[in-house]
Amino acid sequence: MQRRTRAMRMVVLPVLLLVALTLAAACGGGDDGGEGALILEGAVAPDFTLPAVGGDTVSLNDYAGEKNVLLYFSMGYG
User: Fold this and answer.
1) Given Cys at both, which of 10, 24, 37, 69 links 29, Cβ 3.0 to 4.6 Å?
2) What is the pLDDT of residues 23-63, one digit of tens each?
3) Contact by Cβ (8 Å): 49, 57
């Protein structure tokens, strides 16, 4: 019985550690200096520029002072 428990611990503990590290990385486990950093509710969003459908670019600053909703759809490459 003790062998079985020890063998289970040797499997379960590394798996739990791997899951914890994966979650920490996926949730932004640290401050990376700006890009990808957490933005709190009510905070001013950082400016960004994205390509528009017509080939132009659109910047968040273009809509400063207005109420905005950002909808993002992934292109699903791959």
Assistant:
1) 24
2) 777 765 555 555 566 778 888 888 888 888 888 998 988 88
3) yes
Round to whole Å and give the CA distance between 20 and 6.
21
Residue 49: its H or E element? strand 49-51
Place of tokens 């994966």: 22
CA distance 37 to 27: 10
Within 10 Å of residue 58's Cβ, how many Cβ atoms? 14
The encoded tokens of residue 4 equal 């079985």
pTM > 0.85: no
Candidates 32, 34, 30, 31; CA nearest to 45 is 34
As a whole number of angstroms, the distance between CA 48 and CA 78 comes to 25
Residue whose entry in the numeric block shows the structure tokens 């590394």:
14
